[in-house]
Design goal:
Strands 1, 2, 3, 4, 5, 6, 7, 8, 9 and 10 form a ten-stranded mixed sheet that branches. Helix 2 links the parallel strand 2 and strand 3. The chain is globular and about 55 Å long. The chain has two domains: 209 residues, Spore Coat Polysaccharide Biosynthesis Protein SpsA, Chain A; 48 residues, no CATH class. The protein contains eleven helices and ten strands. By secondary structure, the protein is an alpha/beta fold.
């Protein structure tokens, strides 16, 4: 009896979705339910799947209304009937051993999730490079570990996780810090259970012009910092994260680029973020 469901969440990206589905169908381990949750605003995705002969190979679900990304996530999760599941993005690709590796590990352990902390970046020129590696082959993380790894830029992409639904205890995704709410979602899971990270690249993270990760929302980053501080994270790590993101914000939005060492100096004396941001950047924290 199948005890694993793989859901691909999609929204108006049918052309990218085709290759994503093929990468899932080509897994070494295939004894799972494959669901396509179509949250698109039109029928283009359905037509593309039909034209490519994929509808009879998947459980296709067209949503009657267009949900927010967070509500779509929760809806898909509420429909899961199996013990284990994955929620994968429509613009990424699985390596052939991804499902097999995560599934064999999570079913033999008691983690709320098992994740790949390695992947390949894939751009339009089809060039790739390895990204994110741990010093250990695998590592058990708690909320403090996650906060530290995130601030240091070492957190794996969101769709690389396989979950144990029985250990989720009906936890739902909450949009409390905008696009960064995936971090608080994982912190919430870590309240009662640990997550296992594997030092293996198991997927391709596709880069494209419509990608949300290229945008910056500094106000929500400040909200996230306050949450990370509650994880008892060391102050210096928080300050460095704040400085780097403030520097990134200005370089993306201002023609004149200030010296990053100025930020480091001011952050050392805890003059961020309210007074400096209001006067220099003209935004309200």
């Amino acid at each position: 009896m199948k005890d694993l469901t793989v859901v691909i969440l999609t929204h108006n990206r049918g052309i990218l979705l085709i290759n994503t589905i093929i990468s899932v169908l080509n897994q070494n381990y295939t004894d799972f339910f494959l669901v396509i949750s179509d949250n698109s605003s039109n029928n283009d995705t359905f037509n593309l799947l039909n034209e490519n002969g994929l509808l009879n190979k998947i459980d296709y679900r067209k949503r009657k209304i267009e949900y927010s990304s967070f509500d779509h996530f929760n809806l898909c999760m509420s429909e899961i009937k199996t013990k284990y599941f994955m929620l994968f993005h429509d613009d990424d690709l699985m390596m052939s051993n991804m499902v097999d590796t995560l599934y064999n590990k999570i079913k033999s352990t008691n983690y709320v999730a098992v994740a790949s902390n390695g992947f390949f970046l894939l751009d339009n020129k089809r060039t790739t490079k390895k990204f994110y590696e741990l010093k250990q082959r695998e590592i058990e993380i708690n909320s403090v570990d996650l906060a530290e790894y995130y601030c240091m830029g070492k957190v794996a992409p969101f769709p690389s996780y396989m979950y144990n639904k029985e250990l989720l205890k009906n936890k739902m995704f909450i949009n409390n810090v905008g696009k960064y709410s995936d971090v608080t979602w994982l912190l919430n899971l870590l309240e009662n259970n640990a997550i296992l990270w594997l030092d293996k690249p198991l997927m391709y993270y596709r880069l494209h012009k419509n990608q949300d990760s290229f945008s910056n929302d500094y106000k929500n980053q400040l909200k996230l910092i306050k949450i990370l501080e509650k994880s008892c994270l060391h102050g210096k790590i928080i300050l460095k994260y704040r400085v780097n993101n403030l520097y990134f914000y200005e370089t993306k939005n201002r023609k004149r680029v200030r010296n990053i060492y100025i930020y480091m100096k001011y952050s050392f004396f805890y003059l961020f973020p309210r007074v400096i941001i209001k006067k220099i950047f003209g935004i309200i924290s």
